[in-house]
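Q: Structure for this?
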Amino acid sequence: MKPAPAADRPLALVTGASRGLGATIARLLAADAYDLVVVARASAPLAALAGELRSHGGLVVEIAGDVSEPEVRRAIVAAVERRGRLDLLVNNASELGPSPLRPSTQWSLDALERVLRVNVVAPLALIQLLEPYLARREGLVVNISSDAAIGAYPGWGGYGASKAALDLLSRTLAAELRDRSVAVVAVDPGDMRTQMHQAAYPGEDISDRPLPDATLPFWAWLLGQPHAEISGQRFRAQSDHWGTPP
Amino acid sequence: MIRSGLEFDRPKSLEANAPPELGGRARDSVRLLATGSDRSSHHRFGELPDLLEPGDLVVVNESATVPASLEVTSAERTLVLNLCTRYGPNLWLAEPRWGVARPGPVPMRPGATLSAAGARFFAVAPYPGIDRLWFFRTEGSVGDAMRLAGRPIQYAYAAGSFPLESYQTIFARVPGSAEMPSAGRPFSSRVVDRLHARGVGLAPIVLHTGVSSLESEEHGPEEPPVYPEPFDVPKETAERINATRCAGGRVVAVGTTVLRALETASSHGRVVPLRGFTTLTLGAGRPARSVDALITGFHDPRTSHLALLFEFAGETRVRSAYREAVRARYLWHEFGDSHLIWRERAGS
């Protein structure tokens, strides 16, 4: 197929893109004619994904690294800066914590700090750095949350606390950035058959959980919504409806 | 619910295969079976106002049918693309078919290009679990392509092709349905005037229907391919529904589309303003509580609509009503006869 002219193509940044939900979202965006910056720690699967994404004809920049490291974030900003604008930022990269999960009283504090750095500090750092580029395009920030942010599930305390913090940051940022025309939403994708979910339940059969592509219709819907109408909301991708009050 | 629980016998001859107005009859001349707690009674649709009381509220779907079926070219092939749902300015869910009467799946791969009347459709991804539906990114005006070359989606039982007007209800205002929200079809301005004169209110919602062809041919209600449909329940309508029920009036949904929208927008026994997409499935184990009666057509065996009706009004009552409809030779399908059925608990 003939790609759209580069100047017209929107640019999206997806973290944690090498597998699972991040790869699902990146594939949808590439097929929907987005240019992409994809970030993940695992360089080999990331390179394989980037090759696949390029077959759609768009520009794909891959950055292998951990979003919790400042130099990796600087590389991300440099990639976006070359384009000068950003349409979509998907903060998907997440740290689960110890596997198997354990009661909060038994979490090592180092593990908790690592979870907070990846799930809370890194997304905010990226938003701080990329906000000028998002503002140029009335861009959208999607922070990937979890039902553990609300559920109080035993073992999930550290991860859930980080996602609860990210939820509140999302709502606060939505209010703060409204005047800059940058929209921010939080999305709970629901249980999925991913490597992270397996790590939470090592040795257990999780084949009853849907694959991440079950969330495709939600992303298709979300990307078509007027940003001002969805900003500040928290969505559940596998809910029986996605709505906004008029 | 087991699939055999949704069987019943209906002679093939009891199908309306053309709009009544093409035979010189008024839309509101179709028959209306009314089913309450007692046995069903027989009426013409024009008598609907006599079956309701002052203070009742009738909720209708203002979605207009679009000419969603396009002949498209792809490489050397000519195909039919039935547009299902618009997800965004340039993103559609659609069903590629071999022809009007030849369903898919048509083998697709991401990036495949279909063209029709100035619009181009690029395959993005299949709908998860439903290989007959694909997301397409579009270039050019899909609206113009439909206006220039689109036709209403049709199925084999209809005798010939009918103009788009045959697929519009009197309430049609907001374009977007792939297939007619058919429960509103028998309404005429005369019926609307008589409802007003009797003190029965009318309130609108919008729900755009997708393509329905996938359902009964391939899947039973155990595994219905449920995909989201856009809906909008405005503030005024939500307020009027709540006020009606507070005052002891009854709410009548015109069609399962209205029921689906109102149930999606229900929260703690009240209807709230909401718009978005809904995949809510009503039926066994998920009763509808937001309305007291439903006006709908006659549904085929093994469909999720029938499962919904069983849950809404009780299987015994629905089976009894359907036996009566078959005995009295009511007509099935979207140009056919109509059924006013009260919720089991309402019982009046």
